[in-house]
Amino acid sequence: MLSIVIPLVLLAHPLEIKQRIAALEERLITTQEDKAVLSLELSLAYLEDQKLDQALTTYLKSLPLIPISEEFKGRNSEHYPELLEIYLKPVEFVDLSKKSRELLSLTSQIEGDPGVDYLKAASYANLGDYESFMECFIRAYQGAPDSFLADKIQAVLYTKLYDREINPIHKERLRENVYLYAKRASQKMSRDLSLQKMVCDFAPPHQVQQEVALALGTIMEKQLEVPRGDIRYWVKRAAETDQKKLAIQFLDIARNWYSYSQSLVWAEEYLGIRKESEGYGEEATR
Length: 286
Hints:
mainly alpha
């Protein structure tokens, strides 16, 4: 297997961190050394210097340079499907840190599985451990560059840069990247509800209505149970894009998921379709 090992020993290099960054930046321009390795080393150096934006930007730019391993391409262990379901399952008021620690515990003994490495990478990123994230993601990317998780995680990284960017021109380019990767990922894994939301949130203005319709159509067709807290999101999205009929259709299906929900009550009132005779009694299950 072609393997890129990020040399963490560089973190103990005698040069001061800023000198090391300058040296790596110059080597990227002036030498014929492996650009992928140099870019990854530079990403880690930026991390050590607490420059997250530059670290993520450099890391993302290095991905097209990464050699792909045919040995592990498309290879997943017997554990991956079950772990993927844990990752995809939406949880009400989810504690991402808790879920990420759970996934890292479940995957700690699994090696040589690109899919599992993606789940580890996502978990490390959620916990703010970007050094471990970078190592896991590279291993996964070498074995499964076409995975929906490869696209989704890149989209998530671009959202982090988008949130921190203040230049409107750069911000727009970042929005385009989020939409590009999120859309591609959602086409590969339509069951991922967080991807459906990301696509709608970052779609170009002239495509938002279409994306909301596609997302709600998928949710209803595949009976993807939306968490109570997200009912408001989808109803507002449909209404704001002049698709009230679609919002009502979505509510009809959501009522089959929950015998009672304050979000359902709010949605009916928001859409102006709630009648007093249809109110839930005090004994309704919450």
